[in-house]
Design brief:
Blueprint: H1 16-24, H2 29-37, H3 43-56, H4 63-67, H5 74-90
Length: about 110
Amino acid sequence: MPNRHRGEIEAEIGGALAELEAAFGADDLVALAERFGSGRLSARDLTRVIGAGLRGAGENISDDEVAGMTVNDGAAGYVRIAADLIATTFGGDTANMEATPRPLAPRPDET
């Protein structure tokens, strides 16, 4: 079992990061990390993150199927799972993630 405190992870590398860049319209990983670093994710964002994680792990599943899944603790459970995936991928503290997903404010380039 990997020990995160020592920097250990268990990972299978796939196309999840490229998929997330495309899904979120990010130009690069820094832009993607900044978007996630805001701590505010919509339910659609959570579905995309979890779906990409599952597909990266070899599951053949659509975002619609992910959206229909039930998770312990409901929306807070989805937030926890997505936060863990993001923290494992980019590092950082998941404490900034809000327990109640809400839409992101438009980015300056989207207004």
